[in-house]
Amino acid sequence: MTEPTNAIPQPGPDSESIPEDVAVEIRKLAHELSNALEIIVQTSYLLHTTEMKEPASEWLRMMDNGVQKAMDINLTLRTYIKAHSPS
């Protein structure tokens, strides 16, 4: 996977933590987002196993790019939550 292009700065010694109850809720949402993205990733993989004509193959490439960006954002979000929450 590539490095996220929208990397969030890591916390310094003076940074505040996300309250635990908020962090738990955000983790749940990030997990659900991961599940939804996994469906799209698997569908994209299966579509790559078929023969597609233009413009459908170009649309698939566009979808792949969007999925990669969404996965990068989700990873950045999860990393941020982990770095800014108490546990």
Description:
It contains two helices and no strands. With 87 residues, the chain is an all-alpha fold. It has one domain (20-84): Helix Hairpins (Orthogonal Bundle). α1 (20-48) packs antiparallel against α2. The longest helix is centred in the middle third of the chain and has 29 residues, at 20-48. The two termini are 26 Å apart.
Topology of helices and strands:
Elements lengths: L19 H29 L7 H29 L3
Secondary structure class reads: mainly alpha
Percent of sequence in beta strands: under 5%
- Average pLDDT metric: 84
Number of separate structural domains: 1
Radius of gyration using CA atoms only? 17 Å
Helix proportion of residues, in percent? 55-70%
Number of helices: 2
Assembly annotation: single chain
Q: Outline, from the CA principal axes? A: elongated
Largest sheet: none
CATH fold call: Helix Hairpins
Query: Which architecture would the CATH scheme give at its second level?
Result: Orthogonal Bundle
